[in-house]
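Project standup — Tuesday

K.O.: blocked on the structure for the chain from last sprint. Re-posting the sequence here as requested.
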Amino acid sequence: MPEIRLIDQDGENAGVVSPAAAMEMAEDVGLDLVEISPGASPPVCKIMDFGRFKYEQQKKAAEAKKKQKIIEIKEVKFRPNIDTHDYDVKMRSVTKFLGDGDKVKVTLRFRGREMAHQERGRDLLTKIAGDIEEIGKIEAMPKMEGRQMIMVVAPQRG
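H.V.: unblocked you, prediction finished:
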């Protein structure tokens, strides 16, 4: 590489110089010569403190990671012949989870002869879907998996 475009420590364009001259300028001010844009013609290099540059990049990455929200899947289990008070208590936890921004997996477990009345379970899941339509949307429609009927609800965006 016969020549590079150099940006000095103050951010000023120092023009096109030879790599040896750029290294000498960097050593004079006690900083490092860092290649910023290798694909450009000629390549762009900058005189800077490389350790500090890496530290600031690390801080930016940590700040971006801190702002992310990990969505968890919470599970609430129901039974087909649930009483109204028990239903209300479980629905309170469903709405709380959705309000916190988590997905909710509603599991309806059938035991013994309840398997013969799967329509009651489907009606219950339809009722749940109707009760949460303002705060959540159904992501996975109810489906049977063995003796369980499962429905996934995600929080409403917006």
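K.O.: great, moving the ticket to review. Residues 59 and 65 are 10 Å apart (CA to CA). The mean pLDDT is 87.
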